[in-house]
Task: structure prediction
Amino acid sequence: MEKVVPIPEAAKAAGMTKLVFEDDFESMDTIDINATHEPGYKWYVDAYGCRLTSDYIYQKDSYIHMGGPQPYAYGLVSYSKQLNAGFTVTCGCYLECRMRASMPTGEYGGIPAFWTMVLGSFMGTDWREGGELDVVELFITQNEKGEDQKYFAGSLHHHYRTPPVGDEKAKVEFASNLVNNTGYLDQFPFIGDEWHTYGALWEKGRVTWYMDGVKMHSAEYTPDALPEYFYRDDPTPLPRIEERRPDLAHRTRVGAHSIMDTDEEVVLLTSRETYPMDVDWVRIWRAE
Result:
């Protein structure tokens, strides 16, 4: 019997009903775990010189576990640098994964993530400018009472480099990014090792984030206006980039995330030793 994969309601409402990428991780056969860089795999393990091994990632029951002796790794990526081939996404898609992550008490920060980054940056061929879409990144922090709080962050990042400064012997390129980010600290319903489904609807000029089918927040962007920056559950916008970082006010592009609409991006699953995660499936939808 052919498996029927339900279309997420947000994807269906946007007309994105064609399943263009799917991995249910029923086995490791879709992962190039031996780093052969042969075509035909959905995931490759060689990114930024950090090669994942079977100690770090393995299949268990009907999902994969990520997190092991490697202290930090970019994880699985849908593209092979050596082949210069693989799966990429562009504006006009719905990305979704089902995952769980045990966020350790007392160790603050985060990394368990399902995200995308611009292909040129991943390949190391174009570092000038590119977007990043974090469908989900999980964090742990402390509140004013000193209590641990875990939260979901769905973010857009605009990465770019300012022109080099200094003489030839001490030339420096300043890298920076602009962020539109909303985390849900007090309201975040994540306790312990619970499975959740995380999704992001990426449309022209707008990304909307979902958790278990419920809309979390959205970010809109245009070529002539920066998106406002929100943090946690506080609706108060922070100062714009010119006010926070006057040294970056000379940037040539005004719309911080307008580049997202033309980006081609690779898809990644990322964890590290102290922030392991399990992934049940990844699915990506587009319009027919």
In short: The radius of gyration is 19 Å.
